[in-house]
Design a protein that fits this description.
The longest helix is centred in the last third of the chain and has 7 residues. This protein has one domain. The protein is about 10% helix and about 35% strand.
Length: about 60
């Protein structure tokens, strides 16, 4: 029998930019389409993935 535990994601600094037109990006899962206002996050290994604006706002905060 397995028991679940709760975890908190480690703080990791990533780079991101917002797109204002539909763009295709290559991700680890294949080609994805980012919609206008989506954020493109660049992960710690250089991988890219699109994030919807509402999820981005809840998940990330700007640093100085």
């Amino acid at each position: 029998m397995c028991f679940t535990k709760k975890f908190v994601k480690k703080p990791v600094i990533v780079e991101a930019y917002q797109v204002f037109e539909e763009v295709k990006i290559e991700t680890l899962e294949g080609t994805m389409i980012a919609s206008p206002c989506d954020w493109i996050v660049i992960g710690i290994h250089g991988e890219k993935y699109p994030v919807k604006p509402d999820i981005f706002e809840k998940t990330y905060r700007a640093i100085e």
